[in-house]
Design goal:
Layout (H helix, E strand, L loop, with lengths): L1 E4 L2 E3 L4 E6 L8 H4 L3 E7 L8 H9 L10 E6 L5 H18 L14 H27 L1
Antiparallel strand pairs: 1-2, 3-4, 4-5
GO molecular function, one term: ribosome binding
Pfam families: RF-1
Protein name: Prokaryotic-type class I peptide chain release factors domain-containing protein
Length: about 140
């Protein structure tokens, strides 16, 4: 059971782990052991996720999310399989925790008079610079 929050936990059967050979440091040992971990979690078909959390997770447009709605997280940070396994599980939990609360609604504000004046002054300055350039070219 992977605990996300006091009210949300993912049962083990929903987490599919695959072990593969990792690249990187480790010498000959790295060629013989499968220390990298690939964790797959089916976001769309998970009965454990509340609908709002599922929608926010799918709306993130994360590159680790496949077209079928399966979240794939790879862990090859460490040289040992157990640490990589804990790492990918914690990263999945953090990702789900980040979408548990709905994002705050943006309150539309109007630009201040000073900011409008600064913008217009900047535009005038830029226009003057461009005008001087055109005069230089025409006189040659």
């Amino acid at each position: 059971m992977l605990t996300i929050s006091p009210s949300l936990a993912l049962p083990e059967p929903e987490l599919v782990e695959r072990f593969l050979r990792a690249d990187g440091p480790g010498g000959q040992h790295v060629n013989r052991t499968e220390s990298a971990v690939e964790l797959r979690f089916d976001v769309i078909n998970s009965p454990s996720l509340p609908d709002e959390v599922r929608e926010r997770l799918l709306a993130r447009r994360d590159r680790r999310l496949t077209a079928e709605g399966v979240l794939v997280i790879q862990g090859r940070r460490f040289r040992d399989q157990a640490r990589n396994r804990d790492d990918v599980r914690e990263r999945l939990a953090e990702l789900i925790r980040s979408v548990l609360r709905p994002p705050k609604k943006r309150v539309a504000t109007r630009p201040t008079r000073a900011s409008k004046e600064r913008r217009l002054a900047g535009k005038q300055q830029r226009g003057k610079i461009k005008q001087t350039r055109s005069r230089e070219w025409s006189s040659e």
